[in-house]
Amino acid sequence: MSQVNLESELLFKISDNQTARQLLKNPLLLKDVWKAKEDLGLKINEHRQQLTINFTDISPEWFKLLIKLYTLVRAKPGKPVQTIVNEINLLKMFSKRLSTLPIYSPDGINDSVFDDFEHWLQTKRLKESSIQGYYKALSNFFNTCRLEGWLNVNTCWFIGKFKAIYPKTNEIEYIPEEVWNQVDKNLHILPESLQRMILVIRTLGLRAGELLNLRFDCLKQRNGEWYIRLETEKIGEEDELLICEPLLIIVVKQQQDYIRQHFKDGYNKLFCVSKRLGTHQKRIDPLRFIPQSKTMSLESFNQWLNRFAKKCNICTNDGKLWHFTSHQFRRTVATVSSNAGVDPLVIQHTLRHRTPEMLKHYVSLNKRVLNAELEQMMKDRKYVNVEGKIIDIYKPKNPVEELVRRKMYQVITQYGECHRSVLQAPCQTVNACWRCEHWRTTHEDLPYLKQDLNRVEKELKIIKREGLIKLEQGLERDRNNLKNCLEALENVND
């Protein structure tokens, strides 16, 4: 029987159902490309930029007709278009395999067809979780076909096919410490807007869509606390997150000034995209950013991250260039929090997961993190500058906040801490921390400071003997700064 006759036969069967007859009158069935918003009223996530639904590559024709009917039933106004498109893409794969089989009518779809598709998927070396995604899509599709009276396919084959699958610890892709540190060291190379995007996403653990769609006025203050308001990407509900790190408030306000400076009141998002650069321009300056009043796409954000990695040669310890994806930041926040001993329910609330089980998809447990290290991290600290003055007293509230605080600065010194903001230009006093206003020490650094003071005094004797006046002046300044720090820290320790 020809494809035309098969489609006609299917239409005849479907038309017996009164509800189906109304669907068959929809003029969209005559088109293979539907507009998500205009035709179906679906919600378009601007960072996805998915404007259409394409049925062109689906065959046989009778199967394409069923998928179109299924889409009409599933496409409720306001539903994210990406949810529908993802499901159709899975059904397209079944269509691709189906077109190679000797199936001459819709009634030919049975358990043997599903067995064949399962074997074909396994040859693709897909993850088990991906294969289960196909099972779920097919089960939903054929169950709907049966309930709507379009096609009666037995779906008992799928019973027992669904099970909870959690990735192994070493399969969870989070950003390792050595990569994180290289990001800190080179962050200033990125355009300022991209710097702030990275600081926000890695501090709050946002989904990329939530970051890219943050509104210009997302920063709110209530009862002395600061919050960021956002729309949860997966369920489309308004939510807010408490900001524990004061520097992040400054980062957001700086970005608001940036948007206001470039677009005045003509743009309502916190972050924007860059204008397209020609091939020659990209070759000359791959990190050039020309702001444009449009939402950055997820693909573009990932491309920026990886151009950054290539430009700065950000590698793992084994020398492999790191490939960034936006979701790695979210997994890293979960991993750091869990390894810091934070209650899973707190992490669930922070990441806005519906169930605690979701955490198993995010956390890579590091068994080398010991309680002693956490206790050391949580100690109160009195910071002394190079003049020997106590300029700050810090009491960590919890391990997560302390880890986040440390990531907001360029912690690249041999000991002590560099409190130079990661947003500032490269350090001008590299390897001369003793002379820098941003360098801070605590009583934990006393043994190292004493060793350095002894070394400097020995070098001074040699320099004086050789008559090197300029070097002598520099070393005397270093010795005085070290003495100032030692004296202040010994008093603090007492």
From TrEMBL:
GO annotation, biological process: DNA integration; DNA recombination
All residue ranges annotated as the Tyr recombinase domain in the record: 170-379
Keywords: Coiled coil, DNA recombination, DNA-binding
Entry coiled-coil feature ranges: 446-492
Domain of life: Bacteria
One Gene Ontology molecular-function label: DNA binding
Pfam families for this protein: Phage_integrase (PF00589)
Family membership: Belongs to the 'phage' integrase family.
Protein's name in the database: Integrase
Organism listed in the record: Nostoc sphaeroides CCNUC1
